[in-house]
Design brief:
11 strands, Carbamate kinase, two-stranded antiparallel ribbon, alpha/beta
Length: 247
């Protein structure tokens, strides 16, 4: 009888040791206009668990736009600081929901908050976050940076640098970075690779300018890819050339 194939030799291996996955709050809505779609978040959780079990160290920054967007509320007259703090609290709700969804697969998760709320999340301490990652736990960073006037994009860039992530994986609803909105412009051109200056000079809405500047100053690459395509997180971490890369 022929020997059975060694799965460890045939299965793809991650090309990164530690990544930071940036998820938008809007992605959790699915086709709804508000809140969290249980099927959508369960699907994301399953994919995250799949790559975690490949031996990857995974940190996540999650937005809150499916519940509350501070910038939009500020534009309608609300005090900007108050609006941003409300947006930070929305990210905590999303982080706890994602934690619950991932833990249903038997994987340990820790939620670390930039705003103290000991009853529901650990306080963000860099060394503690790194230790959780080294022990094989998924870490979810919530409440942004803990400061108003900074987006979760900026929080993602800062946390990625602090934990020494190899790359930021920016999960979106499109398959990369385009020169215009591909939803409204069928002729929009997709970029495979861009420099940080390209993004800033062209005004491309990859991440906000503060986040791009942090990544540029520290030579931290960003990969933008389509989260809605099943299996794309695994493809990205295993080195398949999909999406658009900045850096």
């Amino acid at each position: 009888m022929a020997d059975s194939p060694d799965r460890s030799e045939t299965s793809p291996k991650p090309v990164f040791k530690r990544v930071l996955l940036k998820l938008s709050g809007e992605a959790l809505m699915g086709t709804g206009g508000y809140g969290i779609d249980p099927q959508i978040i369960a699907g994301f959780a399953e994919e995250i668990v799949e790559v975690q079990r490949l031996g990857l160290q995974t940190a996540i920054v999650i937005g809150g736009g499916n519940i509350f967007r501070g910038l939009n509320a500020s534009a309608r007259g609300m005090d900007r600081s108050t609006a941003d703090y409300m947006g930070m609290l929305a990210t905590v709700i999303n982080g706890l929901a994602l934690q619950d969804a991932i833990e249903r697969f038997g994987v340990q998760v820790r939620v670390l908050s930039a705003i103290s709320m000991h009853e529901v999340a650990e306080p963000y301490i860099r060394r503690r976050a790194v230790r959780h990652l080294e022990k094989g736990r998924i870490v979810i960073f919530v409440a942004g940076t803990g400061n108003p006037f900074f987006s979760t994009d900026t929080a993602a860039a800062l946390r990625a640098m602090e934990i020494q992530a190899d790359i930021i994986l920016k999960a979106t609803k499109v398959d990369g970075i385009y020169d215009s909105d591909p939803v409204t412009n069928p002729a929009a051109r997709r970029f495979e690779h861009l420099t940080y200056l390209d993004v800033l000079q062209r005004g491309l809405k990859v991440m906000d300018t503060a986040a791009i500047s942090v990544c540029m100053d520290n030579k931290l690459p960003i990969l933008v890819f389509d989260l809605t395509q099943r299996g794309n997180i695994r493809r990205v971490v295993c080195g398949e050339e999909i999406g658009s890369r900045v850096g």
